[in-house]
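Quick one, T. Sequence first:
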Amino acid sequence: MDLIQNHVTALVSSADTLFILLGAIMVFAMHAGFAFLEVGTVRHKNQVNALVKIMSDFGISALVYFFFGYWLAYGVTFFDSAAVLAENNGYELVKFFFLMTFAAAIPAIISGGVAERAKFNPMLIAAALCVGLVYPFFEGLIWNGNYGFQDWLAANFGAVFHDFAGSIVVHAVGGWIAFTAIIVLGSRNGRYRAGKLVAFAPSNIPLLALGAWILSIGWFGFNVMSAQAIEGISGLVAMNSLMAMVGGIISALVIGKKDPGFIHNGPLAGLVAVCAGSDIMHPMGALATGLVAGALFVWLFTYVQKKYTHFDDVLGVWPLHGVCGLWGGISAGIFGLESFGGLGGVSFTSQLIGSLAGVLVALIGGFAVYKLVNRFMPLRLSEEEEFNGADVSIHKIGATNVNNQ
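Structure tokens:
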């Protein structure tokens, strides 16, 4: 019996390791989605910069999260021997890989908001500070119970803050940090003339669409594999992700009047919003969450672009991740309740407080990081560099060789 038990334990351990490894790979693939979504949205002269930023941000994020961020969030380091690290089929290592891909989404989100006018090195330093300090502080607060915040919520409001796959921890934090970076950088030159919006059309709709498809597919790894073990896998999470995605598509299609940019961001809005409660909502609640998220994105993106001339959010990352993420944290406290068909175990008050706490941490941390970096290393390209485009100004090469014979 002991032999059988040992084999079963080894099988479960190896299955869990493979499960979370596949999740890490799927979320890693989502970064290609971030890249192509930005490449297709920005003007042609900034496409190379978009690709290089996402790849470079990922590398820097992995380093700072390995040495600092993961330690800050979970109190875990990797300074043991390889023999110790490889125990239990190396599960703890692939768990780090999985959570690191989440952390690396923070600068990928920010990148889309500040596109076309940001310097490379200062933004890379700012990304490192966000992933190494700001993000893991809140991640540990929610997902590891650091500093007693979750205990306080449970004691006073009947439940901890529930964020299964990161509507707040990842998306809202990333979106609201991007909000601060956008304000510090200011709008692109020529974006507004005589107080009126000048539209910069997306450079490549097919690439934009490709990015949206890659992100949408990878999101099922993002959500479903947040269980982090085979035992916790749930078809409910997959179904809720699907229904929220569909809700986002439908509302963006109708309200966005068939605009391809809105339609391809609609599913992402729904998926952002459903992350928090995807494991506890009824599918109809997930559909409603997605419908609201898609509408929020279209309306807010349009309103802000026309109303606030200084706030130039190129990809709409603040409404998409910041606001839809905030809605997702709150909606888990509505549609997660048994009275709304959910599984229960959540408190609306805890969801509201936890969601607003994420926004507060992101705003304080974001302004601190970007104002500090900007003081010592200006974040903004010169007017001439911006006019020539980030591709030539920073990377000395364009996206395509039009003179090739």
